Amino acid sequence: IRAISNAMPNIVPEGIRVHSLEKDLPMRSFSLTMIVPGIVMLSSGLATTFTSLRAVTLSAVKGDTTVLALLEWSYYLSGIVLVVLGILVLIRQKMLKP
Q1: pLDDT, tens digit (0-9, with 9 covering 90-100), for 54-86
Q2: Is the CA virtual torsion 79, 80, 82, 87 positive or negative?
Q3: pLDDT tens digit string along 7-44?
Q4: C-beta separation of 40 from 86 below 8 A
Q5: Fewer beta carbons below 10 Å: N end or C end of the chain?
Q6: pTM of the full predicted structure?
């Protein structure tokens, strides 16, 4: 928003240009919106790898183990990235708090 308001000041209202996202955005709920889906993604990856969900998923991808491995890795990587970003936002909030 800030970049657009600087590039085209006539499009963005003055009130939006003045405010900052850091002050308006509640960091705790913002970080939780990344941490919770990250944990769900990690749980989905673990369930796909170690439970009977693996057989169901394998039949859904018609026995292609490469696709199954890519799906598992996407669960793991997405979950890890979301959890790490959520934790970093929480840490940043704690450091900036007066």
Answers
A1: 999 999 989 899 999 999 999 999 999 999 999
A2: positive
A3: 777 777 777 666 655 555 677 888 899 999 999 999 99
A4: no
A5: C
A6: 0.71
Rounded to whole angstroms, how far apart are CA atoms 74 and 72? 5
Query: Which helix (H) or strand (E) is 95 found in, with range?
Result: helix 65-96
Q: Spell out the domain ranges in the chain.
A: 26-96
Do 76 and 44 touch, CB atoms closer than 8 A? no
The contacts found for 24-32 with CB under 8 angstroms, 24 or more apart, are 27/89, 27/90, 27/92, 27/93, 28/90, 28/93, 30/89, 31/86, 31/87, 31/89, 31/90, 31/93, 32/86
The pair of three-digit structure tokens given for residue 47, joined into one six-digit string: 């369930």
56: CB partners within 8 A, 6+ apart: none
Question: DSSP character for 25?
Answer: S
Sign of CA dihedral 76, 82, 83, 88: positive
Distances (CA, A) of 43 to 36, 38, 46, 90: 11, 9, 5, 22
